[in-house]
Amino acid sequence: MNEMRQTWQALDYAHHIHPFTDPKALKDKGPTVITRADGAYIWDADGNKILDGMAGLWCVNVGYGQQALVDAATEQLRQLPYYNTFFQTVAPPQVELADTLSKITPDGLDHFFFANSGSEANDTIIRLARHFWNRQGKPEKMTFIGRENGYHGSTLAAVSLGGMKHMHDMEVSLLPGFEHIMQPHWYTGSNPGESPEDFGLRAARALEEKILEIGPEKVAAFIGEPVQGAGGVIDPPASYWPEIQRICRQYDVLLVADEVICGFGRTGEWFGSQTYGIEPDLMPMAKGLSSGYAPISAVAISERVYKGIEEGGLLSHGFTYSGHPVSCAVALANIRLMQELNLVDRVREDIAPYFRQCLGELADSHPMIGEFRGVGLLAGLQLVKDRETREIFTAQDNAANLCRDRCLANGLVMRAVGQTLVASPPLTLTRDQVDELVGKLNPALDETAREFGLL
Ligand code: PXG
């Protein structure tokens, strides 16, 4: 296997370009080659068994090796591997998936458009929202407002919608019509003595200020992840979303809740919008929709926006694989399995509370953890040099990456975002696996803390 691994690494370097990766750094190190997976574990080409604390890339919600999903894909491949939905045709899995989604999404979201990735879902939203306002006789209502450090994808439109500075820096120039406001991160953004509630209101009112600055007649929509994922698992104070909702209603700005990570049980409800009481007009979802077994995304659309689109004439938008029958069949099997296993209730009532308790105890006792964030099975551990002063490690310190590498050496996948360690495990995680996760994370944190003289 070792020889094979080296061959794969050499061929990878010769021919394959990796997303979100520094090619030179990868060349020196060589990628970890992952060859198989089962349950909450992945195996590398050297036979090492690794606990996947990230569920792939925040997506394998039902865990690996679920036969029901494999069977659904196989059966659909035999029956009808492909047919398009462009020319007034449809296949049963597409209809059944849209119907099933209408039953689990928040009230008022009953119309669905399919695409293949979260980025495509968000591009779709930009086009649909502008089309909607245009047909309402308000073509100047074009601007989208997102948040600094928000993530909405990697296509040119989605990256403009997001607020990731390192992504913007690569492009030099973004598309016009996209603005950003502050993120609701109390730990790094609050003033001395400012309570989370007050800070949440202030962060939300940055939206009102931005709308008034641009002019409400020019603002199409506001987009936010209920909990920021790729930004480092940032769950806003309780006061934030109700105030955002009020502002969007007051100025007739569409509200988009990006559920690509929060959707499908991760926060302990089917959708993060339900956890936070958000009533979105548009809702992109992907990842957990198929637990990553097949690429698919969807946009949920409210009655009001749908009616506008219905009256709007030809909808000139779509992808060859919008509603790919195999992906739809897999997504259906995935949702059915989640229902059979009662996964969402299990997250809310059992495994997330245990996960949060164990990680919370670790965070409380560890000198290098300044803040423990998140909700449900989304966790962020902010690494700091000094808990009293909240001094965060610098990019040069590289503490989170060092710790992430040590976790991997101990047989645990975590994700480093800036100086935050992030976990987003499969929803099927057992209590024993929570203990295993914490048991592997703890020594990695200790070793890293020792390196920086904190232990
Ligand atoms: N919205 C959100 C909230 C996401 O998290 C997307 C949209 C885009 O989805 P696609 O399928 O186009 O990738 C995402 C994706 C990371 C990381 O480093 C996170 C994502 C993707 C890649 C890396 O944490 N989230």
Question: What is the structure about, briefly put?
Answer:
With 455 residues, the protein is of the alpha/beta class. The chain has helices at 2-15, 23-29, 55-58, 67-79, 92-104, 118-135, 156-161, 165-171, 186-189, 196-214, 240-250, 272-276, 303-310, 325-340, 343-365, 399-409, 431-451, and strands spanning 34-38, 41-44, 49-52, 109-115, 143-147, 178-181, 219-224, 254-257, 282-285, 297-302, 369-375, 378-386, 391-392, 412-413, 415-417, 420-423. The strands form four sheets. Strands 11, 12, 13, 15 and 16 form a five-stranded antiparallel β-sheet that branches. Strands 1-2-3-14 form a four-stranded mixed β-sheet.
Mean pLDDT: 97
Bound molecules: 3-[O-phosphonopyridoxyl]--amino-benzoic acid
Question: What is the rounded Rg?
Answer: 22 Å
Q: How widely separated are the two ends?
A: 39 Å
What is the β-strand count?
16
CATH top level assignment of the largest domain: Alpha Beta
Spatial shape: globular
Biggest β-sheet strands, sense, barrel: 5 strands, antiparallel
Beta content? 15-25%
- Unreliable residue stretches: none
Percent helix among the residues?
Answer: 40-55%
Number of domains: 2
**What's the tally of helices?**
17
Q: Would you identify the CATH architecture of the largest domain? A: 3-Layer(aba) Sandwich
What structural category do the secondary elements indicate?
alpha/beta
Textual characterization of the structure:
The chain is of the alpha/beta class. The protein is built from 17 helices and 16 strands. The strands form 4 sheets. Strands 11, 12, 13, 15 and 16 form a 5-stranded antiparallel beta sheet that branches. Strands 1-2-3-14 form a 4-stranded mixed beta sheet. The chain has a 4-stranded parallel beta sheet with strand order 6-5-7-8, sandwiched between helices. It starts with a helix and ends with a helix. The model has no long low-confidence stretch (mean pLDDT 97). The protein binds 3-[O-phosphonopyridoxyl]--amino-benzoic acid.
